[in-house]
DNA sequence: GAGTGGTCTAGACCACGGG
DNA sequence: CCGTGGTCTAGACCACTCT
């Protein structure tokens, strides 16, 4: 009957899900790799295939795994599609989606501010790496953003961001640091463009910008990145589906 | 084996779901009313309880029905909680949620503009009812919004919005007109406050405001309301969960 | 106690992907 | 061809709600 770790009064499938998520977070199946089949896992845990299926289906709904008939179940992996549809909600007038190109302005390390420390749940005095960049859509500068991550979690990020341009930052977090971003919380406000932002985005000072304050979380629900973006919404809008 | 209406190559549970949704949309079970039990419906359609359960569970995920152990399955009904958590995403600094009070400024009927006609999928020359109102949170004026609906779908809305203040507009759509809003799409931009908005919201002209362009849909996926809100984000932010 | 939805099981068959 | 996940079934038992 496959005893777990102790008495647990949640449904079986929910316990199985927690165990599988734990193994996933521990790196037992790196992003993109196949998990054992349903039947194998069911046998391993001593439960029916139906129970195991319910656990895996919920994990798929949370985008922790990818399931495909005839192929198998795979640990979630970042892709351009995922960045585009899950994490980049600024779309063009006609609704078309496109990932922006990025130009890094600055990249430096320093002591976390009180705000950064709290949001990223860091120890007092921890070192963070900050990236300032401008992002372009169809040749136009549209976004001005400042990204903050823990230097301990992402060492040498400065050097990495210099050369590579092809992939998104989240691809790099996953590929080079083994950190997969699965969820994010965004807080939106309207703000006035500062003098510098106005210059970078080719607008006038005081022009209204959409501020996106994003905290990104890894599979363990720990915050791993703080990103504050100021976006010109002259030719784009932020799409939010309420359902 | 319970023939449906014709040859259909989707999975059984998906066909059942479509049939149940259709009956729900037709008003067979008004908001809040109980549907027959799983066993009864399974027998009616000649499928197993498991298949029927899968259909109902998906409908619950889409918030078309409410299911509670020991009680039954109920047609979705609007509630303060639903308005608050599904449709009102402007929250206070400390993350607390609260529904705003509304003060109607104007309410009039007229010919739909080209934009309104397209968004609401109306015939050319259709009549619409428009409401202008200011909404307050904790005594402060925070939102300035213009609402447009089809007059044919919501007759006499002008008279209705005059007196009643207790409930939300969506409660009224449901209670008086039998229209349940189940989904919405919002497009967000940063805009500058007009002179009038600045006055109403007690800000200076040109101050940055968050524009929310919302289209609300009924259970049949038809657009039933257009709402453009201009929000002061001095003491509130728009919360968007990306998962 | 009777009735509801929730969990769990075991097994059959189907659809898909790849050798 | 085999192995994978997807569908469908039938039945047992549990947890919750109301009378």
Automatic annotation (TrEMBL), chains A, B:
<dbReference type="InterPro" id="IPR036390">
    <property type="entry name" value="WH_DNA-bd_sf"/>
</dbReference>
<dbReference type="InterPro" id="IPR028978">
    <property type="entry name" value="Chorismate_lyase_/UTRA_dom_sf"/>
</dbReference>
<dbReference type="Pfam" id="PF00392">
    <property type="entry name" value="GntR"/>
</dbReference>
<dbReference type="InterPro" id="IPR011663">
    <property type="entry name" value="UTRA"/>
</dbReference>
<dbReference type="InterPro" id="IPR000524">
    <property type="entry name" value="Tscrpt_reg_HTH_GntR"/>
</dbReference>
<dbReference type="GO" id="GO:0045892">
    <property type="term" value="P:negative regulation of DNA-templated transcription"/>
</dbReference>
<dbReference type="Pfam" id="PF07702">
    <property type="entry name" value="UTRA"/>
</dbReference>
<keyword id="KW-0804">Transcription</keyword>
<keyword id="KW-0805">Transcription regulation</keyword>
<dbReference type="GO" id="GO:0003677">
    <property type="term" value="F:DNA binding"/>
</dbReference>
<keyword id="KW-0238">DNA-binding</keyword>
<protein>
    <recommendedName>
        <fullName>HTH gntR-type domain-containing protein</fullName>
    </recommendedName>
</protein>
<dbReference type="GO" id="GO:0003700">
    <property type="term" value="F:DNA-binding transcription factor activity"/>
</dbReference>
<dbReference type="InterPro" id="IPR050679">
    <property type="entry name" value="Bact_HTH_transcr_reg"/>
</dbReference>
<feature type="domain" description="HTH gntR-type">
    <location>
        <begin position="10"/>
        <end position="78"/>
    </location>
</feature>
<dbReference type="InterPro" id="IPR036388">
    <property type="entry name" value="WH-like_DNA-bd_sf"/>
</dbReference>
């Amino acid at each position: 009957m496959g005893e777990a770790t102790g008495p647990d009064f949640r449904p079986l499938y929910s316990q199985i899900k927690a165990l599988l998520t734990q193994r996933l977070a521990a790196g037992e199946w790196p992003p993109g790799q196949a998990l054992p089949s349903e039947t194998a896992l069911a046998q391993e845990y001593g439960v029916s295939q139906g129970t195991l299926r319910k656990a895996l289906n919920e994990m798929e709904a949370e985008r922790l795994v990818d399931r495909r008939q005839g192929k198998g179940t795979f640990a979630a992996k970042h892709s351009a599609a995922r960045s585009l549809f899950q994490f980049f909600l600024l779309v063009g007038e006609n609704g078309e989606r496109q990932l922006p190109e990025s130009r890094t302005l600055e990249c430096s390390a320093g002591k976390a501010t009180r705000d950064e420390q709290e949001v990223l749940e860091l120890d007092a005095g921890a070192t963070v790496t900050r990236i300032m960049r401008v992002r372009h859509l169809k040749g136009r500068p549209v976004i001005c953003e400042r990204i903050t991550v823990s230097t301990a979690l992402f060492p040498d990020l400065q050097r990495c961001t210099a050369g590579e341009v092809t992939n998104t930052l989240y691809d790099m977090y996953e590929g080079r640091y083994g950190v997969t971003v699965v969820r994010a919380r965004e807080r939106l406000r309207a703000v006035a463009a500062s003098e510098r932002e106005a210059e970078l985005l080719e607008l006038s000072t005081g022009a209204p910008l959409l501020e996106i304050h994003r905290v990104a979380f890894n599979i363990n629900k720990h915050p791993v990145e703080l990103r504050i973006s100021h976006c010109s919404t002259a030719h784009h809008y932020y799409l939010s589906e309420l359902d």
